[in-house]
Specification:
- The complex is a heterodimer of chains A (118) and B (321).
- Chain A is mainly α and 118 residues long.
- Chain A is 70% helix and 2% strand.
- Chain A has a domain of 60 residues.
- Chain A has seven helices and one strand; from the N terminus they run ααααααβα.
- The longest helix of chain A is centred in the first third of the chain and has 21 residues.
- Chain B is 53% helix and 13% strand.
- Chain B contains 15 helices and eight strands.
- The chains are: A mainly alpha (118), B alpha+beta (321).
- The interface between A and B is large, with 57 and 86 residues.
């Protein structure tokens, strides 16, 4: 059953990615119209597909359920997916205001301000 | 939390360094103090931005909800948790903050890393989401807050942050907290409004992303707003045409692509899409001329333009070579 779900989710990824290309075969998309020749040459659909699936997997490993991981990755542009692939663990995540730690920093900063900005 | 002796020593060392050269550490505050931009009102406060107190670790959803509601999208922080919160990391990524605003039909725009730009957006009525570091570079504690006002005479910003509503903070302190992630700031604006500090290329990119995410109608509105500010922008013209086409307004699509071919005679994509639209409207002769011209321009889109031309030739009853 797990395998079945996995298969379905992968099929979904493929179809979501291919969908924009399959409709209106003769219209050129806005992103392609403004991409430089270099961008277009670098564009590699196979690699793009792999990194999108990778990010979905990383999200799942970080505690998201399969369907919301897929939703979230599908809402991203390819550029955003490329920025995230393999880096979700190290990129900044805004979390807490952490006042315990902040106190030290704030005190220093306030002193700077009082001495200097006023 | 206890502060170790080593940390205190480090703090004093830093402090003495800071007093020796504040301009080096807080250059933007220094610049604002010495030369106030003439176009910036002395103070501003956005009273229409609602305040949502954050749950533990969830400043991302809270900050985003404040910005979205200010832009007219009724949404609670709880509803955004499933779009931007990552349980195992107990926080929210910047990219997902941008993506989530887009999913609600808004244009997500990352500001230039300038305090004055953030203040200009506030003066123009847009709250600004910022990413701050409450810890240290090597041990960061990231936090999202929403700037909702400022006062140049008092030298402070006004922010909704965490559990603090309308908190004031001196420019220097804010810049210090803000500097570590490249002075990152974003706005989420309704599609009919271009942020006052927007740059042409980066705003166009932001609208293309909105279109790609499937928000065709909102993207169409945003392309029109973009063209109002920058009438000959290629992404704006192509995007206006493509979204009009997707919305089944073929006449509008034709006029957009035609304008694009006039302003950008080298844009093969513009001729290609114009040809396609003309063919669909039964103007086969004009369509064929545009399609042939698209092919003659060559370039990386050649395969696509050739396919369009061959299709139109077939429609017109001309044999392809």
């Amino acid at each position: 059953m797990r395998l079945f779900y996995k298969l379905i989710s992968q099929l979904l990824i493929v179809s979501m990615i291919l969908l924009p290309f399959s409709t209106q075969a003769s219209m050129i998309g806005t992103d392609q119209a403004v991409a430089s020749a270099q961008d277009l040459a670098n564009r590699d659909k196979v690699r793009d597909f792999v990194s999108r699936g990778e990010v979905v997997k990383q999200f799942e490993a970080l505690g998201l359920n399969a369907s919301s991981a897929l939703d979230r990755v599908n809402a991203m542009t390819q550029q955003e997916v490329n920025q995230l692939a393999g880096k979700i663990d190290s990129l900044p995540v805004g979390a807490d205001s952490g006042w315990g730690w902040a106190a030290a920093v704030i005190i220093i900063a306030v002193v700077i301000y009082l001495v200097w900005y006023k | 939390m206890r502060i170790s002796k080593a940390r205190l020593t480090a703090g004093f060392l830093f402090l003495s360094m800071a007093l020796g050269g504040c301009a080096v550490i807080l250059p933007q505050t220094e610049a604002l103090k010495t030369q106030r931009p003439a176009d910036l009102p002395a103070s501003a406060e956005l009273t229409q931005v609602p305040f949502f107190a954050q749950e533990q670790y969830q400043c991302g959803p809270a900050a985003l909800a404040m910005a979205l509601n200010a832009a007219g999208v009724k949404v609670t922080p709880e509803a955004l948790v499933d779009q931007v919160y990552i349980p195992a990391r107990k926080g929210s990524l910047q990219i997902e903050m941008l993506v989530s605003a887009r999913r609600h039909g808004l244009v997500s725009y990352e500001l230039a890393p300038q305090l004055t730009d953030a203040l200009r957006e506030i003066a123009a009525g847009t709250p600004v989401i910022v990413l701050e570091n409450y810890g240290f570079r090597i041990f960061p504690i990231w936090h999202y807050a929403v700037l909702i006002g400022y006062d140049l005479d008092q030298g402070q910003v006004l922010r909704h942050s965490g559990i603090h509503e309308r908190q004031t903070m001196p420019f220097g302190v804010f810049e210090y907290l803000w500097k570590d992630e490249g002075h990152w700031a974003m706005v989420a604006v309704p599609p009919d409004r271009v942020p006052v500090t927007a740059s042409e290329a980066r705003y166009a990119e932001a609208v293309v992303a909105l279109e790609k995410s499937g928000q065709v109608e909102n993207a169409h509105t945003a392309y029109n707003a973009l063209l109002k500010r920058w009438p000959s922008n290629l992404a704006g013209q192509m995007g206006r045409g493509n979204t009009a086409y997707a919305l089944k307004d073929i006449a509008d699509a034709e006029s957009a692509f035609r304008q694009a071919t006039r302003d950008h005679p080298d844009a093969a994509a513009a001729f290609n899409n114009l040809a396609q639209v003309l063919a669909e409207r039964g103007k086969l002769e004009d369509a064929l001329a545009a399609a042939e011209h698209a092919v003659s321009l060559g370039g990386p889109l050649l395969t696509a333009t050739q396919a369009t031309r061959d299709e139109i030739r077939q429609k017109a009853g001309i044999k392809t070579e």
